[in-house]
Design brief:
Its main location: membrane. With 457 residues, the chain is an all-alpha fold. Helix content is 73%, strand content 0%. It is built from 16 helices and no strands.
């Protein structure tokens, strides 16, 4: 298999470049809205006199749609079209969010209705993210950009949204209150939908890699058959199984650290929330830098070794520093290293997933992968809190550091992990059955998430 060189890359299409830029901007704006929601809802519940239990219930209703909307909404993304699904997802999320302050300021909003609207606002969020990620390969090819680079930019836009969105959300809630901030949140979804509608080009249907029988009305499959096909693909693909299993475990560790152990450690040994805010900002900022920078060199490094080493560095050394009771400057330095290393993870995962999954199945498969990757998150915080109370913070961090390194270095053992490499790309991922491979298509050198590649540290 030949490696694509700069000379053999397709010329840049200015309209496609604009569409790719609009897609990245829409994704970042939509994700910023999610961050505002995550800040505003708990403070709204507390302002109504809600208890910690009610805040936790609201957080549960904001998280559980990821596990439901990912796999079930992914089929809808494949069936209705990626661009249309992204627009509709933003509009539905925006309307649901807008209904919260409108009802609260007019007829009143009981707690059960708040939970229903929070659930509705998040239900199509993951399918919307998946739809934008699935549009990447075609726009990337037409724009003359390497796929690793565009995946890195998309993931970087998510990290940027979380980094900036947290500050904006905190400022909005402090200045105008949680209700008024939700009006701004609803506006972000509207802007994202408008950007996608106006500036993201439509891929002609005859150029899309659809199911071979997609145009045969008599042979169209049912929703449940499509969902089952996605399950079978993930279950039968050895690399997809390994990726879901690995990221499920690491996300559980990350949830234990970020939701329970780090706040407890900061409160007990670092003087409070200011130190925690510093560590979170350093992690987010360095992850963003590493993410964008890695996209420009990803095509020059071996995937499997880079993935394993960076994943181990993303969680192991920093957790070990907390376990050893290192001073704050050392913790900041180790957190910076972890952030830079974490920036390489999602570009590799996202590229591998886009290469291996046939285009007509990407919505449902990516949704299933995201749901699997997030399945351990609700339990991570609980396990972290129990571990802190039973074995202590230092021991809990030490166990996570050791387990994290062992698990994340598993790709070095070989086996099906070798399928990550560029020369192992399945030809069916980028072409329709019976098509002749296009030499100008983005090859291995050119995921949600959960995407969208599985979420990384």
């Amino acid at each position: 298999m030949t490696t694509r060189t700069a000379a053999s890359r397709p010329p840049r299409d200015r309209r496609a470049v604009g569409s790719l830029a609009a897609l990245l901007a829409a994704h970042s704006i939509s994700q910023t809205g999610n961050v505002v929601t995550a800040f505003a809802i708990p403070f709204y519940v507390l302002a109504l006199g809600g208890s910690g239990v009610e805040v936790g219930i609201a957080a549960f209703f904001a998280t559980i749609p990821i596990l439901i909307g990912g796999p079930f909404g992914g089929v809808v993304v494949d069936r209705v079209g990626h661009r249309r699904a992204a627009i509709v997802a933003d509009l539905v999320s925006g309307v649901a969010v807008l209904a919260i302050p409108v009802l609260a300021l007019t007829v009143g909003l009981p707690f059960w209705a708040l939970l229903a609207l929070v659930f509705a606002a998040g239900l199509l969020d993951t399918p919307g993210q998946t739809a934008r990620r699935v549009m990447l390969p075609r726009l990337t090819e037409q724009a003359g950009v390497r796929l690793e680079q565009s995946v890195g930019l998309l993931d970087g836009s998510e990290r940027f949204a979380r980094l900036i969105g947290a500050s904006v959300a905190g400022l909005l809630v402090a200045l105008v209150g949680p209700i008024a901030s939700l009006f701004v949140n609803a506006a972000t979804f509207a802007v994202s939908a408008l950007l996608t509608w106006l500036f993201v080009a439509v891929v002609p249907r005859d150029e899309q890699a659809q199911r071979p029988d997609a145009n045969d009305a008599g042979s169209r499959t049912s929703y449940w058959a499509d969902l089952g096909e996605g399950f079978r693909f993930v279950a039968h693909d050895p690399l997809m199984r390994l990726i879901v299993g690995l990221v499920l475990i690491t996300n559980l560790f990350d949830a234990a650290r970020s939701s329970s152990l780090l706040p407890l450690y900061a409160n007990d040994r670092l003087g409070g929330a200011a130190a925690l805010g510093l560590l979170v900002a350093v992690m987010g900022g360095c992850a963003l830098l590493g993410n964008v920078a890695f996209g420009f060199v990803a095509h020059r490094v071996p995937r499997r070794v880079t993935f394993a080493v960076c994943f181990a560095l993303a969680g192991g050394p920093s957790s070990a520093a907390f376990a050893l009771g290192a001073p704050l400057p050392v913790l900041v330095a180790m957190t910076a290293v972890s952030g830079l290393a974490a920036g390489a993870i999602n570009p590799i995962l996202g590229t591998v997933e886009l290469e291996r999954v046939p285009e007509h199945m990407r919505g449902r498969v990516f949704g299933l992968i995201n749901a699997g990757a997030w399945a351990g998150v609700p339990f991570g915080a609980l396990i972290g809190g129990i571990a802190a109370d039973t074995i202590g913070l230092s021991m809990a961090f030490g166990i996570i550091a050791l387990a994290y390194v062992i698990v994340t270095l598993s790709p070095l053992t070989g086996g099906s992990w070798r399928l990550m490499e560029r020369d192992q790309r399945p030809p069916s991922a980028s072409s329709r059955p019976g098509d002749t491979p296009d030499p100008s298509a983005p090859g291995p050198s050119a995921p949600d998430p959960p995407a969208s590649g599985p979420p990384s540290p």
